[in-house]
């Protein structure tokens, strides 16, 4: 059965890495990575309006893939609660939509940042950077939370796979 996992968390929290691990065990799992999609789907506009628009586009793409029987994992910071609620509405998949909060403390995300984005944001070179100069609104009631500070990538992916199985989705 096709589903949409909406992976949300701070930059460098582990969203994309977990999805890549999950792809090893979930057949035909498509990943919609926010950074990759920005290269061709949306301008690099990180204002609130720009982020809202990007989230809507990605949600529509996820809905389209799911409607064709493709399971989808969206790896997107998606910093605002309203963005994630809107994604759930757009995808309209009922129990086949799950918000997965990839929780990781800001300090740990900064340690993992191989691109130096946090350092640039703290130096004022990147404006409106989530977690530094722009807020990340933690999900008040995600369908599942994985904590990438206390568990490894394989463990997080295993827990997500078990969650999908418990819902009859994988």
Q: Summary?
A:
With 170 residues, this protein is of the alpha/beta class. It has helices spanning 15-22, 34-38, 48-67, 81-91, 106-112, 117-122, 153-166, and strands at 4-8, 30-33, 72-75, 97-103, 144-147.
* Total domain modules: 1
CATH architecture: 3-Layer(aba) Sandwich
Structural class: alpha/beta
Overall pLDDT confidence: 92
Query: What do we call the CATH homologous superfamily?
Result: P-loop containing nucleotide triphosphate hydrolases
Give the strand order of the largest sheet, numbering strands 1, 2, ... along the chain. 2-3-1-4-5
Largest sheet: 5 strands, parallel
- How many individual β-strands? 5
CATH class: Alpha Beta
Terminal CA distance reads 7 Å
Query: Might you state the CATH topology name?
Result: Rossmann fold
Which percent range fits the helix content? 40-55%
Number of helical regions = 7
Topology:
Elements: E1 4-8, H1 15-22, E2 30-33, H2 34-38, H3 48-67, E3 72-75, H4 81-91, E4 97-103, H5 106-112, H6 117-122, E5 144-147, H7 153-166
Parallel strand pairs: 1-3, 1-4, 2-3, 4-5
Helix pairs in contact: 1-7, 3-4
From the structure above, extract its key features.
170 residues, alpha/beta, five-stranded parallel β-sheet, 7 helices, 5 strands
């Amino acid at each position: 059965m096709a589903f949409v996992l909406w992976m949300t968390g701070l930059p460098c929290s582990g969203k994309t890495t977990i999805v890549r691990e999950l792809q090893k065990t979930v057949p035909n799992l498509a990943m919609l990575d926010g950074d990759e999609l920005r290269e061709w789907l949306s301008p690099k506009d990180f204002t609130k309006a720009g982020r809202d628009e990007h989230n809507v586009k990605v949600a529509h793409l996820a809905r389209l893939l799911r409607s064709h029987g493709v399971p989808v994992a969206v790896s997107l910071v998606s910093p605002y609660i309203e963005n994630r609620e809107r994604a759930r509405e757009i995808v309209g998949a009922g129990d086949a939509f799950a918000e997965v909060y990839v929780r990781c403390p800001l300090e740990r995300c900064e340690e993992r940042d191989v691109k130096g984005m946090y350092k640039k944001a703290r130096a004022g070179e990147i404006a409106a950077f989530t977690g530094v100069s722009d807020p990340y609104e933690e999900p008040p009631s995600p369908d599942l939370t994985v904590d990438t500070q206390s568990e490894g990538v394989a463990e997080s992916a295993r827990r997500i796979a078990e969650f999908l199985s418990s819902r009859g989705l994988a």
